[in-house]
Amino acid sequence: MSGSMHAESDCDGTRGMRKLLTSNEAVAEAVKLAKPDVIAAYPITPQSPIVEKLSEMVENGELDSRFVRVESEHSAMGVVIGAATAGARVFTATSSHGLAYMYEMCWWAAGSRLPIVMALAARSIGAPWNIHGDHLDLITLRDLGWIISVAENAQEAFDMTLNAFLLSEEVNIPVAVAIDGFTMSHTAEVVNVRQVDIPLRKQAYRILPEMEVALNAVAFGDARMLARYDLAKDLEESASSIEEKYGGLVERYRLEDAEYAVVVTGGLSGDVKDAVDMLRKEGVKIGVMRLRFIRPFPRKAVKELPSQVLVVDRANTDLRGVLSVEVAACGVENKNVVAGIGGKYPTVDELYSCLKRFVDGKLSDVEWLI
Fold this sequence. Notes:
Layout (H helix, E strand, L loop, with lengths): L6 E3 L5 E8 H12 L3 E4 L6 H12 L6 E4 L3 H13 L4 E5 L1 H16 L5 E6 L24 E4 L3 H18 L3 E6 L7 E8 L25 H25 L4 E4 L6 E5 L4 H13 L4 E6 L1 E3 L3 H5 L4 E6 L8 H8 L5 E4 L9 H12 L6 E3 L2
Parallel strand pairs: 3-4, 3-5, 5-6, 6-8, 7-8, 11-12, 11-14, 14-15, 15-16
Antiparallel strand pairs: 1-2, 2-9, 7-13, 10-12
Helix pairs in contact: 1-2, 1-5, 3-4, 7-10
């Protein structure tokens, strides 16, 4: 961590310290402020610096937390599930194959309605082997029942992580905070590290060793279906809290008079905005809807888009990208571009060319920037 620092006030009136941080470091700073009781994680690129920084904070006394060194990501989620069940505030982080290894336990976290915060440094999943960034790991969380936020920059990585503890404990649903691998996790920006007091842990229930209670005993179909329905309903209803308290599900950029719209999420959004600015200078009425959350999915906002929509994806199902499918499920027809798989990051000029063909009616329904 380097660069000059000075105190300042941020938009909500809290005091802050300006620091030059990678998004990994920004996440760690937010976790420090949240004061979790238990942190458990297994290192994996490009997430490792998050928990390395947190372990340093615990070791030197900056953070009064129990740091559990586990043998796998599956165990990391198991540890935080156990600790959260007993009422502890918890945190973990992972990436790529680590998330895949953890996948089974992520279902148990959501189904148990436990407040858990997890950072995800989004990275490609093999094969072929690739350690660079895309959203192919991120999409595996979509159907589990987690709230999923996706940061655009290091400041948002800090803010979203801090807010995730509050949101998770408010609605009793685990929250994932995604950052783009390497382009965000390992590059530094100036971040206002807000100095705020986080409320004491809230949780719907606690189970302690002396209690004669079993958690997640075998359930028959009616109970299982009701539990899944309640989780889905509460996940949908969390949108109102996110809109009111946590910055909203989407960011609208130059959409006020737009005839064309681009839907995107994550760190690529800034480059898409630059390309949109270039087209605006040419008189094209185009804007951006950046998805800050992909669960709950912002259906209402998507349905308000103009008739000409292009979705830029960094993860695919078949040829079509995942966000494109979800936008289409809202009844919004769209063109689709898949880009940035395995870290093959498009330039602003390439994005401008793609958007130019879109507004000129020359873009295919689905294209890949290969």
